[in-house]
Design brief:
304 residues, alpha+beta, Structural Genomics Hypothetical 15.5 Kd Protein In mrcA-pckA Intergenic Region, Chain A, Pseudouridine synthase, 3 domains, four-stranded antiparallel β-sheet, 18% helix, 29% strand, elongated
């Protein structure tokens, strides 16, 4: 995706080189290399320029992020505009927020080469939006195939870099809703390391020796018929973290084919990405998006 940014240099920024200025704005080293290789990628006062040039107050600096290549192995899969827009929660030049339905993988994988969110996004931008540039699928918060809810996608390399920095600084706050078996304590924190289970490609387990640090906070919102509805916040983002942690404390999610294959009430793990809070990667505006769970969550009449 192509994106152009324009800056007017302030008195405080005078004396910085273009490279220093861009690094202060959050441009990564690979992005600076990309700009150096792009014709008129860096333009100062209308002239093609270089990162070592020093800036003066009032200078106009135009940055053109041009992408010609698309993600490999993501073929375009047809979807109607109406179908795609049903998923769209928010979109601007830099980010896209989608409400992913359960059962839809995020990325292509074995057995799912063309029926994923990435395939539909590629079609949306190239065929429905007629974007005449490369499309790199940059998903910020990955969800398991059977987890529903909010997904954040960066539409260009700059927004991706800024959001990646927020992730590293733990400034992207993710809140999930989950239904678990049994009645949990009113609230709690699970601090147990998670590792890949030996001899398994996808399954994870608690492993005090090999596991990576994993912290999950939960609050019980309601309980009925020996099930609990939880609000869950992640401090870390390990694969299957919620599913593994809740099983470890004796409250697995119903419908979880890996960790609790009990399908009497719901046919997939009862997990939903409920809220995303972060700073807009370009404007720095504080953003918060909320999406209630789908109908299959309400096999009991929850109050929340």
């Amino acid at each position: 995706m192509n994106r152009i940014f324009s800056y007017i240099i302030s008195e405080q920024e005078e004396g910085l080189t273009i490279g220093q200025f861009l690094k202060n704005k959050g441009y990564s080293h690979p992005m600076l290399v990309h700009l150096k290789k792009t014709e008129r990628g860096i333009v100062l006062n209308g002239e093609w320029s270089y990162v070592y040039i020093k800036l003066k107050k009032g200078d106009v600096l135009d940055i053109s992020l041009m992408e010609t290549e698309s993600s490999e192995n993501i073929p375009l899969t047809s979807i109607t505009l109406d179908e795609f827009m049903k998923m769209v929660v928010y979109e601007d030049e830099d980010i896209l927020i989608l409400n992913k339905p359960a059962g839809l993988p995020v990325h292509p994988s074995m057995g799912h080469h063309e029926d994923t969110l990435a395939n539909y996004c590629a079609y949306y931008f190239h065929e429905l939006q007629k974007v005449n540039s490369g499309f790199i699928f940059r998903c910020v918060n990955r969800l398991d195939r059977d987890t529903s809810g909010l997904v954040l996608i960066a539409k260009n390399m700059f927004s991706s870099a800024r959001l990646s920095t927020q992730q590293l600084n733990r400034e992207i706050h993710r809140t999930y809703m989950a239904v678990v078996t049994g009645v949990t304590p009113k609230s709690g924190t699970i601090n147990l390391p998670i590792a890949r289970k030996e001899a398994s490609v996808i399954e994870r387990c608690i492993d005090m020796e090999r596991g990576e640090n994993a912290i999950t906070h939960y609050t019980r919102l309601d309980s009925k018929n020996d099930y609990s509805l939880l609000k869950i916040q992640l401090e870390t983002g390990r694969t299957h973290q919620i599913r593994v942690h809740m099983k470890a404390i004796g409250h697995p999610l119903p419908g979880d084919f890996l960790y609790n294959p009990e399908y009497s009430h719901i046919k997939r793990q009862a997990l939903h990405s409920y809220r995303l809070e972060f700073f807009h990667p370009i404007t720095n505006e504080a953003l918060s998006f909320t999406q209630n769970p789908p109908e299959d969550f309400f096999f009991l009449p929850w109050n929340f």
